[in-house]
Design brief:
This protein is of the alpha+beta class. The protein has a domain at about 5-220: Rossmann fold. It is built from 11 helices and 20 strands. It has helices at about 15-30, 55-65, 75-95, 100-120, 170, 185-190, 215-220, 235-240, 240-255, 285-290, 295-300; strands at about 5-10, 30-40, 70-75, 125, 130-140, 140-150, 175, 225-230, 315-320, 325-330, 335-340, 365-370, 375-380, 385-395, 400, 410-420, 425-435, 435-445, 455-460, 460-465. The strands form 4 sheets. Strands 5, 6, 14, 15, 16, 17, 18, 19 and 20 form a 9-stranded antiparallel sheet that branches. It has a 5-stranded parallel sheet with strand order 3-2-1-4-7, with helices on both faces. The protein is globular.
């Protein structure tokens, strides 16, 4: 097939992955050109990180010259601020945990950037993501094509998670030239081709901004406000009606002889991110029992716990002069262990930056209340507040990559899921109802936070995604 008439625009960032993507396309005979995006300005302290765009642009220019392709510069900082940065501030202000990289791909790389590339005459846009794309024929109409997005071949570099909000139109214009390669293979190709980016380290931090101190970043727009850090004790769970009901409900859904470990057993995250060819395990739950749950019960099962611990004060006499003072009375359910500068600056599962000492085990955020400006914490990896089994995605926020796989109300399916990029895939049951999609995991999940994207897979194919409601 003669590819010289097919024009491809590569998003050249100056990194090794996009450089090799451009190189391989050129080698295959495509008519290749590149664009370098500027998505922020150094004059704007809000978006100033360690990743200097001038250096990246310089490397991108050298790569383009080495490969022998044109390079254009495009300023998308206005779109980036409106669609990604403002979204981040808004989400954190609500006490949610956004993923800017997911939005950057949906709103910038495969929307604003794609629009400019098409104006330059591109037929496709290519990126250096570790993922693969396949084309199927629509069984109902042989002329229609259905695009599948598959895990990358490198089990430790799969990046489909970041592309979980793409649709058929965007995928029809997308190419992923390095998805079949491993990272060491990409490095080897870059070195053999003597690309200037061959030894360049991978970028970290916020998409196209770099490694930024998140609290400092957020304080550009979100006003600090002192509040309490409250530690939650074990007795709180023994008396909380919602927690007790949820545990009983989970028991009622189990197959005969099945059991659940109620808290996440701590272990460093595995390196294998992909399905790795392993079959999806059997569910511990009964489909009949799940189907019998009414919408109200599913809603209740997916609800996060509400830590409303009240503290009372008492008077006492101190010292030889018996000076009258007040103190907070001991509470069997919790205690105030510190102060913070704003609940919106913390996320569930966070350990660093709390400044809470005097504990034998690590202390983690288990909940944030931005209305009352309280951060709730728990001691130890196995603290009950870190673990949940069920979450919900609102009906209007469910995204299906393939329209032919959309679930209907009442339908139940088994998929693998992850709720963060580096998390190994987890077995789960998806339950579709009129009010939304409910996800019931086979095992307790650590640090489920509203705003995170839950992404589901069938074998090595990414099927859909949506932000966690609460």
């Amino acid at each position: 097939m003669d590819k010289s008439g097919i024009k491809v625009c590569v998003g050249l960032s100056g990194g090794v992955d996009s450089s090799v993507a451009a190189y391989l396309l050129k080698q295959e005979g495509y008519d290749v050109f590149a664009m370098f995006m500027q998505n922020w300005h150094d004059a704007d302290p809000t978006l100033h990180g360690d990743c200097e765009w001038e250096e990246d642009r310089f490397v991108a220019e050298m790569v383009a010259r080495k490969i022998g392709i044109p390079l254009y510069f495009v300023d998308l900082s206005k779109q980036y601020r409106q669609r990604v940065v403002d979204y981040m501030f808004d989400e954190y202000a609500k006490g949610r945990t956004p993923n800017p990289d997911v939005l950057c791909n949906r709103e910038i790389k495969f929307d604003a950037f794609l629009e400019v590339a098409l104006k330059y005459g591109a037929d496709y846009v290519a990126t250096g993501h570790y993922c693969r794309k396949e084309i199927l024929r629509d069984a109902t109409n042989d002329k229609n094509e259905i695009y599948r997005i598959l895990e990358g071949s490198d089990p430790n570099k799969d990046q489909t998670y970041f592309l979980c909000q793409l649709g058929q139109e965007q995928l029809s214009r997308a190419l992923f030239p390095i998805g079949h390669l491993t990272k060491p293979e990409v490095r080897r190709i870059a070195k053999e081709a003597e690309l200037p980016s061959a030894e360049k380290k991978d970028s970290q931090g916020i998409c196209f901004v770099g490694k930024v101190d998140l609290p400092t970043f957020l304080k550009q727009k979100l006003e600090p406000k002192e509040g309490r850090i409250v530690e939650v004790f074990e007795p709180w769970y023994l008396q909380d009606g919602l927690y007790i009901w949820q545990q009983e409900c989970l028991d009622s859904l189990l197959k005969e002889g099945a059991s659940l470990e109620r808290t996440v057993r701590y272990a460093p995250e595995e390196k294998v991110l992909t399905s790795d060819g392993k079959p999806l395990g059997e569910s511990p739950y009964s489909d009949d029992a799940i189907a019998a749950l009414d919408n109200g019960s599913l809603e209740k099962l997916s609800r996060p716990l509400n830590y409303d611990i009240q503290f009372e004060t008492e008077s006492y006499r101190s010292g030889k002069r018996h000076v009258k003072k007040t103190r907070i009375k001991e509470n069997p359910f919790g205690r105030i262990v510190g102060e913070h500068e704003g609940a919106q600056f913390y996320t569930i599962g966070q350990r660093k930056g709390l400044g809470v000492g005097g504990h034998a085990l690590p202390v983690f955020v288990i909940s944030t209340d931005t209305q009352s400006n309280i951060v709730y914490v728990g001691e130890g990896h196995s603290h009950k507040g870190l673990s949940r089994f069920c979450l919900k995605i609102s009906q209007e926020e469910i995204h299906w990559i393939r329209p032919d796989l959309v679930m209907r109300p009442g339908e139940i399916r088994r998929y693998r899921l992850r709720i963060r990029y580096r998390q190994p895939l987890q077995g789960a049951t998806l339950i579709m109802r009129e009010s939304g999609l409910y996800i019931l995991f086979d095992q307790a999940q650590r640090g489920i936070s509203p705003g995170q994207f839950a992404v589901w897979y069938d074998s090595d194919e990414m099927i859909g995604s949506g932000p966690i409601q609460a």
